Description:
Largest sheet: 7 strands, mixed
Radius of gyration: 22 Å
CATH class of the largest domain: Alpha Beta
Shape: globular
Structural class: alpha/beta
Helix content: 40-55%
Oligomer: single chain
Bound molecules: pyridoxal-5'-phosphate, (2S)-2-hydroxy-3-(4-hydroxyphenyl)propanoic acid
Strand order of the largest sheet: 2-10-9-8-7-3-4
CATH topology of the largest domain: Aspartate Aminotransferase, domain 2
Strand content: 5-15%
Number of helices: 14
Number of strands: 13
Order of helices and strands: HEHHEHEHEEEHEHEHEEHHHHEHEEH
CATH architecture of the largest domain: 3-Layer(aba) Sandwich
Amino acid sequence: IFNNVEHLPPDALFDIKKRLSQDTRPVKVDLGIGAYRDNSGKPWVLPSVRSAESQLQKDPNFNHEYLPIAGLPSFTTGAAKTIFGDDYDSTRVISVQSISGTGALHIAAKFIEKILPGRIVYLSNPTWPNHKAIFEGQRLTTAQYPYWNASTKSLQLDGFLDTVKTAPEGSIFVLHACAHNPTGLDPSKDQWAQILDKMVEKNHIVLFDSAYQGFATGDLDRDAYAVRLGLTKLQKVAPVFVCQSFAKNVGMYGERVGCFHLVIPDQSVEINASVKASLSSQLAKIVRSEVSNPPAYGAKIVSTILNTPELNKQWHADMVTMSSRINSMRHQLRDHLVELGTPGNWDHIVGQCGMFSFTALTPEMVQRLEQNHAVYMVSSGRASIAGLNEGNVLYVAKAIDEVVRH
Ligand code: PLP
Ligand code: TYF
């Protein structure tokens, strides 16, 4: 019965990793998957995570019992404060723990399918490819809004706003909260205000995907700007969804720590409480059928960090360590390209933020980087800047110089 099942192509990102690990050349550079590396090219366990882990190991009450269906309350509350601010209005927010950011998006997709069927889900062009897979996997219809203008390497604001205006009223717009993947380009404060005002006019529902909080500016609060502005602007009219990942900013990629937040429109105290209770029961049912209850270990570590003042302070410092190293690599790469006289303008590398640079290298150039120089990146030209370090940045600049010239 399986003889005619279609053989699907491998996942592009994980396939890069596979090719790289099979590459026997002595010098290889991985600018593929968005995962932080330290200056020696190694994964980094954050000092705040190390401290939280040793604190947990010493706790005589530590155990491996099941969590509640909605997750560890101290974690979900801490997660909400991290994205919404310490003084957020908890009477309007339902938070359930998720399998990292992907799981939060999946909960959102199931919720939309059940409670808001028929709404179109708008994704940025381009976006993280899994967005389309997750929403279409729940049989939702997706569409695109213009985002990246390749010729100016800037935001295509007019096209974006036009799509917001012409989309059916009450559509769902997935917005990257900060450090857009793959372009590294975020709207300015003024552009965010224009975008969110248009969302209000059309009663659209905004879904913020927050996978890189802290990586845009190094400051976790500043990186929550768009989400917090969104909550204020959309307060009366529409719900807001937030899919929050702690994979990158806590560096616990494989532990799958995340949270889905549903912010309900503000009505009266009584209506808010009753709506919240009904929606909580719906979300509990989704989580129950998907994972029964969420994984405990990573959530306990992140909760310890969020709720212990010294560790929280250390975490904010760890975030600065990561984002400033990435930023320094952006500058070194750009400066080397300028010194080499590589044809073209490379200022966008330092203008972009987060983990990635959308380098504007063509798929052919990316292929030659891999074949001739063992420098690996996504065929779209997206480079994970975290893969650069003092030891390889000049090598990468020279490799780019070679493929651009030939
Ligand atoms: N959303 C975006 C835009 C991402 O880039 C990622 C990870 O790369 C995620 C969500 C979710 O990642 P995870 O499931 O590892 O938290
Ligand atoms: O876009 C990227 O580079 C990665 C992809 O569980 C990714 O972040 C995302 C989630 C995940 C594994 C890889």
